[in-house]
Amino acid sequence: MKNLKKFLAILISTLLVLGMAGCSSPTDTNQPEPVEETPAETPAEEQTGMKPGKYTAAFRGYKSDVKVETEVDSEKIISVKVLEHKETDGIGTHAVERLPKIIVDSQSVKVDTISGATTTSYAIINGVKDALKQAGADMKKFELVPPAPTPKDVTLDTDVVVIGGGAAGLSAALEARRNGAEVIVVEKMDITGGNTIRSSGAFNVAGHKLQIEANKGRKDIEEFIEFTMTGGHNMNDPALVRYMIENSAGIVDWVTELGFTPEIGETYQSFTVPGYAPGLIIGLQKFFEEMGGKVMLSTKATEIIMKDGAAAGIIAEGADGGKVTINAGAVVIATGGYGANLEWIAELDPSLKGFVTNNHPGATGDGIVMAQAVGAAVRDLNEIQTHPTVHVPTATMMTEGCRNAGGILVNTSGKRFTNEVNYRDIVSEAILSQDQGFAYLIINQEIVDSNGNIQGYYDIGVLQKFDTIADLAKFMNVEESVLQETMDKWNKAVAEKNDPEFNSQFTWIRNLSKGPWYSVAVSPGIHHTMGGIVINTNTEVISTDGKVIPGLFACGEVTGGVHGGNRVGGNAILDCLVFGKTAGEKSAAYIK
Ligand code: ADP
After folding, report:
1. Domain 387-525: which CATH class?
2. What is the DSSP string of 107-127?
3. Which residue, judged by its Cα, is nearest atom 1 of ligand 1?
4. How does pLDDT run across 226-244, given as a tens digit for each residue?
5. If exposure means fewest CB atoms within 10 Å of the residue's CB, which of 128, 204, 359, 540 is most exposed?
6. Is the shortest distance between the CB of 281 and ligand 1 below 6 Å?
7. What's residue 199's pLDDT?
8. What pLDDT does residue 49 have?
9. Architecture in CATH for domain 2-41+48-142
10. Share of the chain above pLDDT 90, in %
11. How do residues 467-481 score in pLDDT, each as one tens digit?
12. Per-residue confidence band for 402, with pLDDT thresholds at 50, 70 and 90
C-alpha cells in the first residue's frame, strides 16, 4: 500500500513535469517535411499510391529526436537514413546503424526492434512510417511481418567460450585472447554491454600512483577493504574482497595498457575511462575483435556441456532460432545478475514486490540456472540491492555521482533527512521511511556540468531545471522559506565541512548556492543482485560439494560473495574488470 501510494505520487508529479517539459513523443520537430520530390513518369498514385521522393520525419528517441530520411519510388522503399540524432553510444547507435538496412531489405516497418535499444528503434520505425504516409503509401503493403529466417543448426569449436558480453565477459574474453586462446563470446541481446553500459562507468581504486601523486582518493588498501566489508554487512567472502582491492590499482594499469586513458573520476576514489561505460564496452569489444575474437550477438546460451566432469562447451539458441553448439576447452559464465527478473526477486525477497528495476531486460539470472544445472554452488540469492535514487516512472537511476558531488535529498516537508552519501541500503531505507516513500534529489548546474551522465538525465526529460529557489519550491510543493533554510544550512555545512544534522562526509567542494538548480523525485529501485555462483579467487566455479568444477569459470555480477549483503557504489565495474581479467587468464591457462 505504501509502495502504491509512493508510486502514484511520483507518477503524478512526473506526468505533470513531463507534460511541462514537452517530452512526449512525437515532438514538435515531428512535422512531416518532404525534402525533395523526384517527378515520376506515370503519376505514382496510379501505380501504388506512392509519390516518389525523399521524406523526413523526426521522432523522439531515448535522449534526442531522431531525424530520419526515407526515399521511396512508386513501388518501394529505396533508402532509409538517420540524418540527425544524439542517442547513446553503444546502445541507441546500434539501432541507428542497423535498423535502416533491415527496413529496406524487408520492405517493412513491422521489423523487430534492436533488443537493448528499443526506444531508438521505435523512433526510426515511426520516422519511416510517417514518411510512407506522407508519400501516400498503402500502409498495409509495408506492414507485412518479414518471414522468419530458416533456423540452421551450427557447431563450432573454440578454446574458450564466454557467455555474456558485459564488462566481465568482454574483459575475460579479451584477456583469454591476449593469452593466446581462441575465444567466442555469445551475447543473447542484439547489443553487448548489459547493465554495464547503462552504468556511470566509474570504478573504485585504492592506492594507485596517480591517486597518490594527486593526493586524491583512497590510498590505503586496508581501509578500503574494511569499507567494502562493512558496506557488505561483513557477509562478503573476505578472500574475494581482498583480491579485488589488492588488484584495483593494477587494473588501472591494465586498461591503460589496453589503450584506454583512465582518469581520476568525480567520486574521489574512482577512475573512469573517457566516454564512461559506453566507452569502456565499445573499447573492450573493439580490442577483442581486432585481435581476432568473435562476438555472436542474439545468441542465448541455454546449457553448459559437461564431459567427464569438466565443462566442455555450451548449447545456445542462435539468432535464427537454430541450435548452436560450441565445443570449448573452457567455459566462462559472465551473464550478469537477475535484477530484471522481478518475479524471481519477489519470491526471493517478498518485501521487494512491486519495485521497479533499472536493470537491462537481459538481466534474468540465466547463468545461475545453467551453473546450478551442472552442480555449481550458489550463495546469498536473497541479497538484492535497491539503488536509493531511481526516478520510478522511467526507472532511470540517478547516479551516485549526483550525491557524491554535493547533491542533497529533501523530503516533502522541504527538509534533509539523511547523510546522502551513506551506504545504499541505509539511504534507501531512509527514503522509504519518509512521507509517501520518496524524496527530491537537488543538484545544481555545476554538478550537471561535471558529469555527462547527469547531463543525460536532463536530456531525456527526467531532471527538471529551475532558475530560482521559489520555482524549485513550487515544483516540490514545499514552503519556499523552509527550502531556503535547508539550502542555507547545507551550503554552510559544506563551507565548514561539518554537517551537525547528519554527519555527511565532505569529499567535495561544491555547495548548492549557485543556480540554476535541478530536481527529480526519487525512490529506491532494484539495482544490483549480490547473490550468485560461488567462485574462488581464480574465478573457478565451486560445486555444491565444495570442489572446483574443472573448466568452468565465472566472473562479474553472476557470482556471489564479492559484495556480501550490500554492494558499495563503484565496486561493480571493479569486480567485472578484476575478476573478468582473472577469468581470461585462468581459462586460457587451463586449456593449455
Ligand atoms: P556484468 O556486469 O557482470 O558484466 P552485465 O549485465 O553488464 O554483467 O552483462 C551481462 C551480459 O550477459 C548481458 O549483456 C546479458 O545480455 C548477457 N547474457 C545474459 N544471459 C545470457 C545468456 N543466456 N546467453 C548469452 N548472454 C547472456
Report:
1. alpha beta
2. T-S-PPP-TT-HHHHHHHHHH
3. 336
4. 999 999 999 999 999 999 9
5. 540
6. no
7. 87
8. 79
9. Alpha-Beta Complex (3.90)
10. 78
11. 999 999 999 999 999
12. very high
Residue 382 has pLDDT above 50, yes or no: yes
The CATH H-level superfamily of 157-345+365-383+530-591 is: FAD/NAD(P)-binding domain (3.50.50.60)
Is cis: bond before 516, omega within 30 of 0? yes
Domain with CATH 3.90.1010.20 in the chain: 2-41+48-142
Determine whether 567 is an active site residue: no
Protein residue with its CA nearest to atom 19 in ligand 1: 335
Among 403, 424, 510, 567, which one carries the catalytic annotation? 424
Whether 167 contacts 196, CB under 8 Å: yes
pTM of the model: 0.87
Q: Which of 61-75, 391-405, 472-486 has the lowest mean pLDDT?
A: 391-405
d(C-alpha 161, C-alpha 304), whole Å: 10
Give the integer Cα–Cα distance in Å for 584 and 180. 10
Measured over all CA atoms, what is the biggest interatomic distance in the chain, rounded to whole angstroms?
81
303 alpha carbon – ligand 1 mean position (Å): 15
Which residue's alpha carbon is at the smallest distance from atom 11 of ligand 1?
164
Residues 6 or more apart in contact with residue 413 via CB below 8 angstroms: 435, 478, 482
Q: What is the pLDDT of residue 71?
A: 97
Residue 339 Cβ contacting ligand 1 at under 6 Å: no
Cβ–ligand 1 contact at 334 (below 6 Å)? yes
Residue 196 beta carbon below 6 angstroms from any ligand 1 atom: yes
- Give the Å distance between the CA of 336 and the centre of ligand 1: 5
Report whether residue 576 contacts ligand 1, using a CB cutoff of 6 Å. Answer: yes
